[in-house]
Amino acid sequence: TVQRAFWDAIRDKLDEDPPDYSQAVLLLGEIKEFLLQLVVSPDTPTYKQIDSYLDLEQILKEAERGALDIKSRADFIIDSMARICSPARDSAVAALREQTDIVDLFKGIFAVLELMKVDMANFHLQQLKPHLQAQAIEYERSKFKILLDAQDSREEALKFTTEWLKSAYRALLPDKPPRVEDVLNAAFLQIFSWEPDRMYPETLALDEIRLKELSIRLSLAVHCACVIIITFNSVGGAITGLSEFVLKLRSTIAVILQGHLKPDSDVLKSVSEQVIKETNQCLESHGFPTLPEAKIHDIKMKIETLNNPKSHPVYKVISQRSVDFLRGVLTSTGANNTVEMPNGLAPVQDELKEIARNFIKIVSFNKAVFAPYYDDIIAELRESNK
User: Fold this and answer.
1) Please, are residues 172 and 183 in contact by the beta-carbon 8 Å criterion?
2) How many other CB atoms are there within 10 angstroms of residue 8's CB atom?
3) How far is CA 196 from CA 83, 165, 193, 200, 259, in A?
4) CA distance to 168, 191, 386, per residue, from 177 (Å)
5) Tell me, what DSSP letter sits at residue 376?
6) Alpha-carbon torsion (24, 28, 31, 37), positive or negative
7) Would you call 335 helix, strand, or coil by DSSP?
8) How many helices and strands in the chain, by DSSP H and E?
9) Phi-psi label, residue 47: left if phi above 0, alpha if psi -120 to 50, beta otherwise
10) pTM score, whole prediction
């Protein structure tokens, strides 16, 4: 490769007698620029030390006299990297000290410097994130206000938003008047039970596609969990505790369900047939007899009736638990406040956690943008329910 040829050429230069340091000097110059960019401020002692010790004029003079001590310069570079790198790179920098081949050492230095450059970029992005988010919130709010002002009346312009919040508000009664945050959380969680053709609130217009995608993903995850529960409950102890079989079954079900907005009877029939096939294979491999016809019929019937989820007892329970999990995530505070995964959802917990992360992002940003409108609507609901 080109990179290998480049490093081989540098090795050949250094192996000459006397050594040709021309390429090594250029590398030291590039490393110096790298380090100075990472330090940023020229007023710091570290910046001044790097600028002084890696002075190219001095390095060139030493090279011309054949007295360039590359190893001491490399040691200084590694020490400088250790001072300015993030803790995540400590082990990579420490590994450079173990390198005895000078060319491989230079290769390692450049590799770690590239990682440190990425770390620095990520750090600056994190620093800018609150500012950028605040600007995005203000921009979305101002654009929405323009659309709102163009309507004949605010009530008509926010008709579906008002109905949406009113439904959530009433669902929380007859308890004491709910807090704004409780109403909003309940309203957002209702979305997962909406029919696909349901009209979305005006304030969710920009989030509608992503929320529908999350709703579909949640439904498929719940279907997958239900099939696994039905299978294990029906077969019993012979497959209890077989974690590898759970993973295989989950993978098989996910592949068949993929791309289906709502699994119909044909799709679920394919699922049930594949589940029976893989269950029998698992039983045989562990020295158990295959499923009797009556058991096969029972499993198939329970899986295939998942095409009517609202009346399916297993689906209703697992679906509610999945929403409860999202509610817990939505209402939890603090980085260490983890929400326990409900029983029956462990096989799809990775998917649920990913859904929850995306859901929180959408909800948090939406609340920030439309908080003034939500506050006004909920305040009116409180007045009308006194």
Assistant:
1) yes
2) 11
3) 55, 19, 9, 10, 15
4) 12, 22, 9
5) H
6) negative
7) coil
8) 16, 0
9) alpha
10) 0.71
Distance CA 71, CA 69 (A): 6
Other Cβ atoms within 10 Å of 84 Cβ, number: 19
Say how far apart CA 363 and CA 367 lie, in whole Å.
Answer: 6
Retrieve residue 113's tokens: 């410097």
74 in Cβ contact with 109 (< 8 Å): yes
Distance CA 352, CA 339 (A): 12
CB atoms within 10 A of CB 336: 6
Please tell me the distance from the alpha carbon of residue 172 to that of residue 379, in angstroms, as a whole number. 15
Structure-token pair, residue 355 = 């859904």
Neighbours of 298 (CB within 10 A): 14
* Backbone φ, ψ for residue 195 (5° rounding): -75, 150
Q: Which residues contact 311 (CB under 8 A, 6 or more apart)?
A: none
Give me the tens of pLDDT residue by residue for the chain, a chain 386 residues long.
Answer: 788 888 889 899 988 888 888 898 999 999 999 999 998 788 889 999 999 999 999 999 988 888 888 889 999 999 999 999 988 899 999 999 999 899 999 999 999 999 999 998 888 888 877 787 888 899 999 999 998 988 888 888 999 999 999 999 999 887 678 899 999 999 999 999 998 888 999 999 999 999 999 999 999 999 999 999 999 999 988 888 888 999 999 999 999 998 887 888 899 999 999 999 999 999 999 899 999 999 999 999 999 999 998 899 999 999 999 999 999 999 886 544 688 999 999 999 999 999 999 999 999 999 999 999 999 999 999 888 76
Q: How far apart are CA 329 and CA 34, in angstroms?
A: 42
Backbone Cα Rg of the chain: 31
As a whole number of angstroms, the distance between CA 26 and CA 144 comes to 55
**Distant-in-sequence, close-in-space partners of 366: CB < 8 Å, separation ≥ 6:** 203, 204, 207
Q: How many angstroms separate the first and last alpha carbons of the chain?
A: 77
